[in-house]
Design goal:
This protein is of the alpha/beta class. A 7-stranded mixed β-sheet has the order 1-7-6-5-4-2-3, sandwiched between helices. A 4-stranded antiparallel β-sheet has the order 8-9-11-10. The radius of gyration is 23 Å and the shape is globular. Bound molecules: pyridoxal-5'-phosphate (PLP).
């Protein structure tokens, strides 16, 4: 066992150390070679060391270097070394972190990490929290609590009776809500196409004056961190308006919520803490390994009502927090361990510095591109830059060009009718010199 695990560590370290010198996107030959893995199920056992070698030989070269310093696609963080190390140790523990009485260590680590997170985001200490796979599932989790609460007030028990015959819930979102929010609303039976979409401004922020008249039961979904622009809705106004009629406010803060950890950015999250539930990711800006998302709900009873499970063979709820009383899953890995280790290592100042540093890198990208005459389409307030290189075809050519050139990887988007390159700086590993190297490469590709 020792030899095999040490071999795995050696290979992992060699992989990470090689990220700086390889192209960010996998080479076409490496992708073609994956065909070798597409074999029949072996009749007989194989030496585990040979299996690992096969994995490394074929798997590693065909990965996208998301763990490296110059991947700027989507909104993707790397893994801080402490987070990865904690992930390895927790993997060895192999805890099914559902009940305190069975897995006390991971349950306590979750509880402590959640308490710290509530402090970081400025939420009341009485909020409930859940470690889930990502923001999509955090939406499902928090919105199930919202569904419970708004229907309970109307005298309807949704967990017992489902949605058949229930009072209809009005659901309101901004026109630039992330697609995963619609998916989550569909999954919990609130429908994707009956949602009321509120027009947005030139940065993708919901226009508060365009909110419809709300009639109970209603849920308003806001956003901290538009996936294209990084812009944040005006929560102070929206939450105040929604709460006048008792509507539940749910916040999509997949990455933007982390702005609350930085005093100079806290203005962007003003009023966010007044909402009723929140969804965010730890695998984005906190830089823990995939997958790791978080749901928070002000009304802890509503979340427990939606998620708790009881059965004769399962430990009953006691004094201690059982993680699975708050999550869609019963059996689950102990995601809180990496989050605890990362927060413990960074501390308040280290976390603020990580977020600030990536925002600074983002601004440098925007300045460098604008200085070369390219149009930056968004107000660069967080870690997203949208840049146009001219007509849509030219912009698409530059995006494809930089992806093939390999110094860095940036994606493409169409935002408010304009085709753009998206640059998102979310990784702890990105340095100033990575930004300069990447800028040079993008400008070289754009002028060729
Ligand atoms: C604003 C926003 N919401 C939701 C999501 C979905 O998050 P996840 O992929 O972790 O489910 C993302 C992912 O980029 C996002 O940026």
């Amino acid at each position: 066992m020792r030899e095999l695990l040490e071999c795995s560590v050696d290979r992992a370290i060699a992989y990470l150390e090689g990220l700086d010198t390889r192209k960010v996107a996998p080479a076409p030959e490496a992708i073609a070679a994956l065909a070798a893995l597409d074999e029949g199920f072996p009749e007989r056992p194989t030496d585990p060391a040979a299996v690992l070698q096969r994995l490394d030989d074929y798997g590693s070269p065909a990965t996208m270097a998301m763990a490296g310093p110059r991947f700027f696609g989507f909104v993707i963080g790397g893994s801080l070394p402490v987070a990865l190390a904690a992930n390895w140790l927790a993997g060895a523990w192999d805890q099914n972190s559902a009940f305190f009485s069975v897995t006390p260590s991971t349950s306590v680590l979750e509880k402590v990490a959640l308490r710290w997170l509530l402090e970081i985001f400025g939420f009341p200490s009485t909020c409930a929290g859940a470690f889930v796979t990502g923001t999509t599932v955090a939406h499902i989790t928090a919105l199930a609590a919202a569904r419970h609460a708004v229907l309970a007030r109307a005298g309807w028990n949704v967990e017992a009776d489902g949605l058949f015959g229930a009072p209809p819930i009005t659901v309101v979102v901004g026109a630039e809500a992330h697609p995963t929010l619609f998916k989550a609303l569909g999954v919990i039976g609130l429908g994707r196409s009956r949602i009321v979409r509120v027009p947005v401004d030139g940065q993708g922020r919901m226009r508060p004056e365009a909110l419809p008249r709300l009639v109970d039961p209603a849920i308003v979904c806001t956003q901290v961190g538009n996936v294209n622009t990084g812009a944040c809705d005006s929560h102070r106004e929206i939450v105040e308006y929604a709460h006048q009629t008792g509507a539940w406010v749910h916040v999509d803060g997949a990455f933007g919520l982390w702005a609350a950890a930085v005093p100079s950015l806290a203005y962007m999250t003003e009023g966010v803490a007044e909402a009723d539930s929140w969804a965010t990711d730890a695998h984005k800006w906190l830089n823990v390994p995939y997958d790791s998302g978080l749901a928070f709900v002000r009304n802890a009873d509503a979340l427990r009502a939606a998620m708790a499970v009881t059965a004769e063979y399962l430990p009953a709820a006691g004094e201690q927090r059982n993680p699975s009383d708050y999550t869609p899953e019963l059996s689950r890995r102990a995601r809180g361990v990496e989050v605890w280790a990362t927060l413990r290592a960074l501390g308040r100042s280290g976390l603020a510095e990580l977020i600030e540093r990536t925002c600074r890198h983002t601004r440098r990208f925007a300045e460098g591109l604008a200085a070369s005459g390219y149009q930056v389409l968004n107000e660069v307030t967080l870690n997203q830059v949208l840049v146009s290189f001219g007509d849509p075809e030219t912009t698409r050519r530059v995006v494809a060009g930089i992806q093939a050139e390999g110094t860095c990887w940036c994606g493409e988007t169409v935002w408010q009718g304009q085709t753009a390159m998206r640059i998102s700086v979310s990784s702890w590993a990105t340095t100033e010199s990575d930004v300069e190297r990447s800028l040079e490469a993008i400008l070289r590709v754009a002028t060729n």
